[in-house]
Structure formats: C-alpha cells, structure tokens
C-alpha cells in the first residue's frame, strides 16, 4: 500500500514537472544520494535555503547541513565526514594562519561583502586601508589621529580562525597582523556578539558581514567609498570575498547537481539575492 | 552510591521473610517470584551505577588521551607557565587562562560568600515567616535562569555602568565577570546555607539565650559554627559552578589572552578560551590538543572539588 502511494507520488510529480516545463529537472529527479554539508555559519542560511529548494526538485536526495566555523568545512571534507565544506575563503590556497588543503576544489557560490563598523558616537565617516590597518594593528590608538574626537580607540576583533576575520584582514587591512593585547582590545565569538559589542561600547571599531549591519551602528566608508551592494558590483568597494563550497576533487553525482543548483541563475538571482548575498554573475 | 545499597537490601530481605510467613496460598511460587524481582532490581541499580562511572571515566580518559598529545610538541613547563598564547605562531602557553580561572573563582567567592551567608542568616533567623515563604521560592527560581541571560545583562547593563564608574574605555575583565558570577552563585550558596542553619537544633539557641547572649552573639558564635559543614558544602557547590561557567563569562571577560593584572583589563579564562576557539580549530593539530588539555584541567579542578565535598560531608556526619 505504502509502495503504491509512493509510486503514485512520483508519477504525480513527474507529470507536474513535465507540465510546468522544467525539462532538466525531470532528468535530475531520478537522482539519489546523500549530501552532508558542514562549515561556515555565514553561509548556512544560504545552504539551508538551497537545500530546501533542491530537495523539492530531487526528493530522493537527502541533505543534512550544519555549521561550526569556516575551517571545519574543508577539514570535515578531508576527514571524509562531509561532502561539501562551506568556507569563507578559498581553502585550496594558503591564507594567513591556515595552510592550504591539498586535493580540494573550491567552488564559488556567493559574494559576501564586509564592512568596518563603528559605534554611533564616533565622528569619523571614512578611513583609508592604511588607517584601518594601523588601527587594527595597534599603531593608531586615538580617534583624533584619523580626524575624529580626542578619544581612545576600542578595537573589537573576531577570534582567530573566523572566516570574516580572514577576509577582512586580506581585503581591508592588506594582510597586516592584528594586535593581540592591550586594555582597549577585546575579542568576540560571533557576528551577533560583534554587533552588540560595537553597539554598546563608545569609541569602538569592529567589522561585520554587510548583511548584519543595521540599527544604530555605523558602517564606515573605505577610501571614501560607501559599503553598498551597488559599489561592490561596480568594483569600487573592494572589501568582499567569495563564499566557497569545498569538495574533495571535482564534485560528482548528487553533490555536483546541488552545487550546480546553487550556482544556477535561478537560485542566484532569486533566493540568494533575497538573503542579501550578491550573485556571482554580478561580479563578472 | 554502591555502598548505600547494601543497607536497604538487608531491610528488604527481612521484609521478604515476614511476608512469606504471613502470606497465604502457594508459598514457594511467591517466594521465588519476589526473590527474582528483588534480584533483578538490585542488578538494574548496580548496572546503572557502573554505567555512570564508566561514562565519567571514559570522558576523563578521552580528554586526557587527546590532551596529552600537546606535550609532543610543547613542553609541559611551557604549557603551564608561559603566558604567550598565540596559536597562529604555534605558541601555546596556558598560564594566562589557569591564572584567570583561579583569580576569577577566588574573587567570586570573596564577593558571594559573605553576602550569601548574610542572606541565609536573614532567611533562617531574622525574616518573619511570610517573607521567608516568599523569598525561598524566589531564590530557587533564580538558580534556574540560564547563564546566557546573566551574561547578556552583564554585557548590556553592568559593563556600561562599570565603564562610567571607572572612567575606562573598556570595562570587560575579571571584575565584571566575578560580579556576574557572584549573582549567579548567590542563590545556590544562600539556599544551601539557609537549610544548614535551619537544621541547627533549637535547644542550641535556647541555651545561648539563657546564658544571656545577644542575638548577634548567638548567631555568630553558636549557630554559624554548628552549621559550618553545611555552609561549606554550599560554598563548594557554588565554586564548582563558578569554575565551569562559560556562556556568561565569555560575554563579559573580554577574551584577550593577557594576564589579568588589573580588575578592568580584558583577559581570558579556561572555559571562555575553549568556547571561543573550538569552532575554528583544525583537527589533529597541537592547537586542538592544547584545548583538550585545558578541558582536562577544568575537569580535574571540578573533580578535586567533588572530592573535597565528600570529605567535608564525612567530617560533618562524624560530629
């Protein structure tokens, strides 16, 4: 009886798919398999949304997604725990603090913009890359040195290993090392904590994924360019990074179909945009 | 726990014999059935107790086995006494966190114990009955509030206040964390002390008053010393909670690996450092092993306290 219902369901779905005219999906719906995804928490909303949509098209594919932190993505892939490792940086290359993962392929799935943010009491609106690097490395310690009021700068940083931290360091600070000590320096655990810390600490500076910037904290212009999606797309705002799905070798089977789906124009211009990521095609 | 099962077993045996003598019907059937049930129950209890012990031992063993790999690349002296914790430069000195944990616990106890004992004395000796019945459930409720809530309140209310009072840019650090922890452990310590004080026999007080002592003298010379072991038990339980507390501490301590040589300097403790770094740590790296070693240290500290609790209890029972 159960079997009969199942085959009826499949038949109904096949009819629905062919009648709605999605010919490619008709072939893909015979796809089966299991995809395990682990890694970056910044990419998790995107992954979950894509998994939901993909499962509707391919009911035989099981997808489980979780997130612990960027570097766990490629690590899980290396250990064979996960098929896809979501990571905020290209883990097939060396980045500050992390060695490359040999034999892994980085598949770009989204563009993530980042912004330097300050507490609302800070009078400065724009900083150069050099000034940012000097502030985060501890060379400049007073806001008056960069055109603000006479007040100590409080630096809020993400913990070592955060994907946002890697990207911000590479793109906004020209790879300069962060300071690690001092009475006006603290580290926070997540983007949410960063937002609260900068929001409640006068004279604080930090950085966030652009999608997190809202409310009373202020996103700084970098080199007089405002951090907006338009400026990222037209190439004037440089502080952004790709989000990657790391796979062991070239992806195959269900994993390949899933990555293809995430990279497809339909998903990129639809759900991905709604989640405030920037489509890959916009950067070409 | 195993030792305490022996007494009830004997009691049940006696009960069993009587029920057989007085019972009617087919005696041997009932006897065998009862014996079977009793034995099965006994085995189930022992198996559960052994199971729990096995879990605890295997956790300890696993933490130690992974943690001890640290010493392949880092010398124990460097791990325990160096203050330089920078995983990006392969430098793993955990002294900052060990010191921070000890300092935080001591400071927390300095704040919370006197206040808790006064609360307990108030509840047990001074407060009228209706107030006592109102305050006790409230304190019990406070124990159940999730620590994240305390941490968030500390982050958004306490730290700005401290910042204003001290005139510093950042008020994160040992002082903020110990205030938050003191508020967290206060209900625990005061409720247990309250019970201990209430259990002191009334004749002690009567004798003291009969000798002409004041209420203050009675409380501090007679009642508190009599309740000493119970109060100590509460203090140790509170201390165990303070040592292991993570979520609240991580939000107010500042998470900077530097020695806490000032009350308002951002620093880090064992728990907060583990929770900050574990999501981003590469598997099979010295960094990972070092975090496990820190976890093992925390476990060891907690176990030590439990041993102390047992000793204190035993001494209390002897008196």
UniProtKB/TrEMBL annotation, chain A:
One Gene Ontology term of the molecular function aspect: phosphate ion binding
The keyword Membrane appears for this protein: yes
The keyword Metal-binding is annotated on this UniProt entry: no
Main location: membrane
Signal peptide stretch: 1-24
Places the protein is found: Cell membrane
Lipid bilayer topology: Lipid-anchor
GO CC annotation terms, alphabetical: plasma membrane
Pfam family, one: PBP_like_2
GO BP terms: phosphate ion transport
Record-linked CDD domains: PBP2_phosphate_like_1
Keyword terms, alphabetized: Cell membrane, Lipoprotein, Membrane, Palmitate, Phosphate transport, Signal, Transport
Limits of the PBP domain: 29-265
InterPro entries: PBP_domain (IPR024370), Phos-bd (IPR011862), Phosphate_ABC_transporter (IPR050811)
Family under the similarity heading: Belongs to the PstS family.
Function, in words: Part of the ABC transporter complex PstSACB involved in phosphate import. Involved in the system for phosphate transport across the cytoplasmic membrane.
Subunit structure comment from the entry: The complex is composed of two ATP-binding proteins (PstB), two transmembrane proteins (PstC and PstA) and a solute-binding protein (PstS).
Protein name as catalogued: Phosphate-binding protein
Organism per entry: Cohnella candidum
Lineage of the organism: Bacteria, Bacillati, Bacillota, Bacilli, Bacillales
UniProtKB/TrEMBL annotation, chain B:
Start and end residues of each ABC transmembrane type-1 domain: 98-309
UniProt superkingdom: Bacteria
GO BP term, example: phosphate ion transport
Residue ranges of the TM segments: 40-64, 94-126, 138-162, 174-193, 231-254, 289-312
Gene3D superfamilies: MetI-like
Chief site of localization: membrane
Membrane topology reported for the UniProt record: Multi-pass membrane protein
GO cellular component: plasma membrane
Signal sequence extent: none
Cell compartments where the protein resides: Cell membrane
A GO term, aspect molecular function: phosphate transmembrane transporter activity
Alphabetized UniProt keyword annotations: Cell membrane, Membrane, Phosphate transport, Transmembrane, Transmembrane helix, Transport
Role, per record: Part of the binding-protein-dependent transport system for phosphate; probably responsible for the translocation of the substrate across the membrane.
Family as reported in the entry's similarity comment: Belongs to the binding-protein-dependent transport system permease family. CysTW subfamily.
Protein name from the UniProt record: Phosphate transport system permease protein
Organism the protein comes from: Cohnella candidum
Gene expressing this chain: pstC
């Amino acid at each position: 009886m159960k079997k009969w219902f199942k085959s009826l369901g499949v038949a109904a779905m096949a009819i629905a798919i062919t009648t709605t005219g999605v010919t490619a999906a008709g072939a893909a719906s015979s796809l089966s398999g299991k995809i395990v995804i682990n890694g970056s928490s910044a990419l998790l909303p995107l992954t979950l949304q894509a998994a939901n949509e993909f499962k509707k098209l391919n009911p035989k594919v099981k997808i489980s997604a979780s997130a612990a932190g960027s570097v766990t993505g490629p690590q899980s892939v290396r250990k064979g725990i996960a098929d896809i490792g979501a990571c905020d940086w290209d883990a097939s290359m060396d980045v500050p603090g992390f060695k490359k993962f040999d034999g892994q392929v980085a598949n770009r799935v989204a563009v993530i913009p980042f912004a330097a943010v300050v507490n609302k009491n800070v009078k400065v609106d724009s900083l150069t890359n050099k000034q940012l690097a000097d502030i985060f490395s501890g060379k400049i310690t007073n806001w008056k040195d960069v055109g603000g009021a006479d007040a100590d700068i409080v630096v809020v940083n993400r913990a070592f290993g955060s994907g946002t931290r890697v990207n911000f360091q590479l793109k906004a600070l020209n790879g300069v090392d962060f300071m690690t000590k001092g009475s006006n320096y603290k580290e926070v655990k997540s983007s949410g904590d960063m937002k609260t810390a900068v929001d409640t600490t006068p004279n604080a500076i930090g950085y966030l994924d652009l999608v997190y910037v809202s409310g009373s904290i202020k996103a700084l212009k970098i080199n007089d360019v405002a951090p907006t999606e338009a400026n990222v797309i037209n190439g004037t705002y440089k502080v952004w990074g790709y989000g990657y799905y790391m796979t062991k070798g070239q992806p195959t089977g269900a994993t390949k179909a899933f990555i293809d789906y995430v990279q497809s124009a339909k998903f990129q211009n639809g759900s991905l945009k709604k989640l405030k990521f920037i489509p890959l095609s916009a950067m070409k | 726990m195993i030792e305490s099962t022996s007494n009830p077993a004997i009691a049940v045996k006696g009960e069993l014999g009587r029920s057989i003598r007085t019972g009617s019907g087919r005696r041997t059937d009932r006897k065998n059935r009862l014996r079977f049930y009793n034995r099965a129950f006994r085995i189930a209890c022992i198996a559960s107790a052994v199971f729990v012990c096995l879990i605890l031992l295997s956790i300890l063993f696993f933490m130690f086995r992974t943690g001890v790999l640290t010493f392949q690349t880092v010398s124990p002296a460097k791990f325990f006494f160096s203050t330089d914790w920078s995983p990006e430069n392969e430098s793993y000195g955990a002294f900052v966190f060990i010191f921070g944990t000890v300092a935080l616990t001591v400071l927390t106890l300095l704040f919370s114990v006197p206040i808790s004992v006064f609360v307990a004395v108030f509840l047990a000796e001074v407060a009228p009955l209706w107030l006592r019945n109102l305050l006790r459930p409230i304190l019990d409720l406070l124990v159940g509030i999730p620590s994240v809530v305390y941490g968030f309140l500390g982050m958004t209310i306490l730290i700005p206040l401290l910042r204003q009072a001290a005139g510093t840019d950042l008020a994160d650090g040992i002082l903020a964390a110990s205030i938050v922890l003191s508020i967290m452990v206060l209900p625990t310590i005061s409720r247990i002390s309250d019970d201990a004080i209430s259990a002191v026999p009334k004749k002690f007080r009567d004798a003291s008053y009969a000798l002409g002592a004041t209420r203050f003298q009675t409380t501090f010379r007679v009642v508190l010393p009599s309740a000493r072991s119970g109060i100590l038990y509460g203090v140790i339980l509170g201390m165990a909670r303070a040592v292991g507390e993570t979520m609240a501490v991580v939000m107010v301590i500042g998470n900077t690996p530097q020695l806490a040589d000032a009350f308002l300097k951002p620093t880090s403790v064992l728990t907060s450092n583990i929770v900050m770094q574990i999501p981003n740590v590469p598997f099979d790296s010295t960094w990972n092993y070092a975090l496990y070693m820190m976890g093992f240290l925390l476990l060891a500290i907690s176990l030590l306290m439990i041993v102390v609790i047992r000793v204190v209890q035993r001494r209390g029972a002897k008196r």
